[in-house]
C-alpha cells in the first residue's frame, strides 16, 4: 500500500500529540518540573528567563541548571579548568544548549553546568558566564582557565565577566582555518609540533623549521595569536596542558540523543545519565588499588621507562643536570621544576625528573601533584544528583509559559549544508586529497612517484600459496623483476641454486621466466589445496612445486604438467619424467635451468 507523504506527516503529528500533547501543554509543565528539582536538591542553581510578547503568557527564552553535587565536586576534586561550547537542539523549535565541562583527576570529562538558550549571542553567553561565576565562586577568574573555540561572542563574554582568567583558544579549530591555505602532512606535523612545545626554546626551534619550509606559513601562524593556543606561553598553576576543547565536544556527543527531544524530556535524560555516571565512576574507583588514578599511573609508567635513557649529574641533593637526546636540562626536585616545563605544567614527573628521583632511590609517585590522586578523584564524585518523582507527584505550580517562537529565516529555507571548499562533491562528508602528500606504507622514503620498491627478489623455494613471495614480508604475485642490472646477494643466489658467477643478463632472463611461471602457478595452486585450478581435475600428482621453473627437452616452459603424462606446449609434445627419476639423476640447477638445458639456451651478451 502506498501512503501519501502528506497523510504520513498527519499520522506522525497525531501520534506525537497523543504521546506528548501540544507544545503549549508541554511548556506549561516546566514550572512544576523545576519545583520538583528544587525540592529534591535545594542547593542546586536553577534560573528561568522569560520574555514578554504579544501573547497573554510569557515566552520561554533561557534556562540555566547546575546541580549542587556537580558544583561541589568540581570545587573540591577538579582542577580549575572549564571547556565551554554550544550545540544545536534538534527539534523544530530550534535553540542551542551551552555547556561548561571540567576535567577530573583521571583526566576525563566532568560536566558542571548547562543552559538552554535561544542561540549563541553576546547576551546569552554573558548571561551563562555570569551564573557560572556566581555559583562556582570564580570571582574575576584568578587561576582559572577557560578553553573554547574562537567564537566572537565567547571571547567578549569571557573578557567582560572573567577578565583575569586565562582564555585558551582551541588549537584544533585554529588549525582547521590555517590548513585551508597550507595543506599537507608536513605542514600539519609542524603546526602541532609548535603548538605542543612546552618551552620557548622548543617553540622557537619548531617555528624556525616551519619558516624554512614556508615563510608565508610561519607569518600566517603568528597572526593567529600563538600565546592563546601554544603551550609554551601558558601558565603552569592550573596543572593542565589542554589546548583543545575536545572535552566539551565529548559531552555534546554524550547527549546527542537527548538533544533530539523536547525540553523536559531532554533535561530528564541528561539528569538521569549524569546521575548514573557519578555512581558508576565512584564504584569503579573504589576498586582501584593504586594511589594515583589509572590513566595517570599509565602515563607515569611510560615516563619511567624513558628515564633509562637519561644521564644524571647531581649538583646538590635536589638540583641535577640531565642529558637526554643530545640535550641538557636542569631539574629541581625541591621546586618540582624542569627546563622542559612539562613537569611544571602538568604536575606529573617526566623522564628527566624520574631519572633524578631514581638516582635518590625514591618513589616517583610521591612527586606527582595531589590533584591526580585517587582520594581527590573520590572527592569529585562524592556528591550525587538526587532522584525526582514522576509527573503525577510534582508540586502544583502556576507558571503559565508559552514555547519559544519557531524561527523562520528570510527567503527559501536551506536544504543542503554549506560544504567545505575542499570537500568532494561526489562523496559528501569526505574531503579531497588535494595537497596531501601520497606515500606507500612499505616504502621507506616519502617521495611522491618514487620508483617501484616491490622488487621480486624471492627464491623459487619461498613462493607461498598462489605464487606470492614471502621473502622479507613483501607479498607479490611474482611480477616481472625490474631490470636494474643488480646481482643478488650470495645468500639469495645459493638459496635458489644459482651460481654466483651468473651475469646480470642471466639473472634478468631467468627472473622473467620465473615470473611468468609464478603467475601460472598462482592460478592453479592459489585458490585452495584441494583443486588444481579452474576446470582441472585433481587426479594424479602435478609438477613438483617450489623447486624451480620446469623446462621441457626443447627448452619450452611446462605449466601445470602432470606426472608421467604428455602435453603439447607451444606445438611440441614433451614427456615429463617422474619425480623419482628426476631425484635420482644429479642435476645442477642455475636459476631453475639444468646443465643439459643450458646448452640449448642461446648465449646472451650485454
Which percent range fits the helix content? Answer: 25-40%
The major beta sheet can be summarized as:
7 strands, mixed
**Overall average residue pLDDT:** 79
Structural class: alpha+beta
> What is the first-to-last residue Cα distance?
79 Å
What is the total tally of β strands?
13
Net shape: globular
Strand content: 5-15%
CA-atom Rg in angstroms: 36 Å
Spatially, the strands of the biggest sheet line up as: 1-2-5-4-3-6-7
The stretches of 5 or more residues where confidence is low (pLDDT under 50) are: 444-543, 561-583, 585-606
Tally of DSSP helical segments: 20
- Quaternary state, please? single chain
Number of domains: 3
Key phrases:
single chain, 606 residues, alpha+beta, 7-stranded mixed beta sheet, 4-stranded antiparallel beta sheet, 20 helices, globular, disordered C terminus
